[in-house]
């Protein structure tokens, strides 16, 4: 097992380098970089991304490498900006230097904020972690009992109409579902039940402990529901199919033939085997909600978390923040994949990944 874990850890290195290299290469062809952003602000014409989206070309570079947005600005100023942002070096040298720093977990500072990337991520992380954690727990609390009930009643009217609801919920895009919740329950057009944005009220610090808990969940209700919807549908079907597969196996028929009660057969034999794939997927599901679900949820509900941070970094071309968060997220995702495999072994020691070729 130790050799298997070591192989998987070593495999993370080239995978991580490949992810960073592909994104770094693509970024080189994206117009409106950090230098253009500063030049556009100096010119007083808005951001470079505004110019590009508006169809203009002032935020781009000419064929001879000159910035069109730099008309009237001294070349020394432009050269100084390029040195500050590190664009005075060739792309290959910049990439190698970036990966060397990231290997030592030296992520530098944001281009446009006087704060280190680590401090910035730590500042935003609690919002995303709480959303991911509560959404994952809620998805499991709903999906496992519902999936088991659907498996036991496979083909019944209950199974049919709950499947219809699940398919409809899965088909609704997360952004559209979030807007629907706002329209219905956040004062959009109908009821003003939940607040529109944020995770706490203005006087949160003055509330009692019980008041703080109530205020938090009052604000977090709609974002958590939005983040849960896609994971809930997928996990319910996974649970149902896993239990159906186990129920139809030979050992279940043998246990029934021996006279064991349905309760003993189901919870003594089927439950443990069927829950193997469901429980082992907890780390991956949490990270999936944490990363992919946070962007839409945080942007729509104005939550100051990692999803909103990444979105703003991409819009403002804050490449330091963008690549640092990409590196951290990719590393966490690869480690969670390994953790998921180890969870299989923890649940069922009969599984031996050490004998597999990776």
From TrEMBL:
Its main location: membrane. It comes from the Bacteria. Residues 125-340 form the ABC transmembrane type-1 domain. It is a multi-pass membrane protein. Residues 47-67 are annotated as: Disordered. Keywords: Cell membrane, Membrane, Transmembrane, Transmembrane helix, Transport. It is found in: Cell membrane. The chain crosses the membrane at residues 9-30, 129-148, 160-186, 216-239, 274-301, 321-340. Pfam families: BPD_transp_1. SUPFAM superfamilies: MetI-like. The keyword Manganese does not apply. Belongs to the binding-protein-dependent transport system permease family. This is Microcin C ABC transporter permease YejB. It comes from Amylibacter marinus.
């Amino acid at each position: 097992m130790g050799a298997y874990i070591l192989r998987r850890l070593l495999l993370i290195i080239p995978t991580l380098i490949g992810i960073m290299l592909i994104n770094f290469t693509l970024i080189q062809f994206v117009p409106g970089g950090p230098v253009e952003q500063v030049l556009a602000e100096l010119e007083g014409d808005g951001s470079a991304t505004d110019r590009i989206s508006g169809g203009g070309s002032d935020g781009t570079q000419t064929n001879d490498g000159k910035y069109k947005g730099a008309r009237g600005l001294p070349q020394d100023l432009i050269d100084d900006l390029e040195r500050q942002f590190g664009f005075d070096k060739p792309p290959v040298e910049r990439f190698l230097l970036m990966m060397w720093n990231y290997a030592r977990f030296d992520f530098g500072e944001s281009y446009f904020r006087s704060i280190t990337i680590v401090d910035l991520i730590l500042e935003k992380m609690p919002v995303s972690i709480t959303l991911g954690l509560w959404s994952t727990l809620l998805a499991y609390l709903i999906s496992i009992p519902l999936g088991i009930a659907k498996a036991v009643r496979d083909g019944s009217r209950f199974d049919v109409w709950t499947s219809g609801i699940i398919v409809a919920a899965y088909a609704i895009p997360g952004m559209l579902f979030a807007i629907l919740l706002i329209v219905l329950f956040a004062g959009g057009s109908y009821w003003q039940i939940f607040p529109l944005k944020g995770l706490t009220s203005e006087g949160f610090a003055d509330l009692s402990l019980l008041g703080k808990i109530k205020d938090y969940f009052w604000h977090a209700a709609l974002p958590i529901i939005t983040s849960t919807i896609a994971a809930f549908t997928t996990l319910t079907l996974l649970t149902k199919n896993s239990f159906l597969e186990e129920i139809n196996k030979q050992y279940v028929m043998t246990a029934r033939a021996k006279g064991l009660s349905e309760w003993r057969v189901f919870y003594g034999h089927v439950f443990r085997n069927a829950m193997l794939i469901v429980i082992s997927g907890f780390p991956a599901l949490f990270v999936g909600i944490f990363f992919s679900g946070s962007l839409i949820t945080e942007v729509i509900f104005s939550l100051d978390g990692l999803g909103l941070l990444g979105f703003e970094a991409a819009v403002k071309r804050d490449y330091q923040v963008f690549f640092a968060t990409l590196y951290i997220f990719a590393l966490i995702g690869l480690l969670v994949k390994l953790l998921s495999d180890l969870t299989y072994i923890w649940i069922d020691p009969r599984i031996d990944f050490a004998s597999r070729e990776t």
